[in-house]
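Thread: quick sanity check before group meeting

JM: Hey all, I'm pulling together slides for Thursday and realized we never actually wrote out the predicted structure for the chain we discussed last week. Dropping the sequence here so it's in one place. If anyone has concerns about the input, flag it before I start.
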Amino acid sequence: MTCLVTGATGFIGRALLPKLAERDEVVALGRRAPDGTDCVRWVRQDLTQPLDESALPKGVDAIIHLAQSERYREFPDGAVDMTEVNVASTVRLLDYCHRSGGTSFVLASTGAIYGAEKRPVSEDDAPSPGDFYAASKLAAEQVAAPYRSLLRVQIVRPFFVYGPGQQANRFIPGLLSRVRAGQPVRLAGNDGIRLNPIYVDDAVELLRGALELEGSETLNMAGPRVHSIREIAEMIGAEVGANPTFDVTEPANDLVASVERLTQKLGSPTVTMPEGLERTVAAAR
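JM (edit): ok, ran it. Output follows.
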């Protein structure tokens, strides 16, 4: 099988490529070549621009579209870039996949399309994106939906993916940095909001499994257990030998994903938060 992957130099993409290459021919699409990956073919492509199909395979079996705009926090200055990468490139890739004989398309959306809730959010809940980035990801889902008459289109909504080698400005690395530095961790309410992050190896296996699904699905991609931010900070403290301190503010709603449908379709994630944090900290030593 020939599988094209965008976002190959991103956190999830770097972990996914070698696993995919164990069984498939992999073409990685991006502005920069992925580091240390000799098992894939790299094609230079700026996703704000039309696809250079002369450099792409004449035929593909599947596409995993992980790419997102690098300017996802820059509104309004990054709005055009977000629209091109998150929405327009999704249409271009879906069109290319269909015309080149592909049968499967996996789109990485985001759990941010939901609003914070007191209960776990499910795939059937009405979206409530809180910023332009989340709105652009929801728009990508919406333009992908009609292609389900032509392709098996799987939409996955990741929640707080974490693991070794993640950028410092992400959620779990940010907590890790604060605990190590003795800086207070801000909590909304006594224990902070609750969430269920997913370890990157679990995310990779679920993406691989999504390629094999019959029909089309929309799936939350989150971890097997729910933890408060206080609990996560204390787990980190146990790993790094530090006692976290906290700054308690007004309570807020949670960001917990229901994984019932995910478990039914692809199986449950297996890496627990203590195990994932242990691996993450050990890799940084």
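AS: nice. The two ends are 38 Å apart (CA to CA). The helical segments are 11-21, 79-99, 132-144, 171-181, 200-210, 229-240, 260-266, 273-284.
JM: adding both to the slides.
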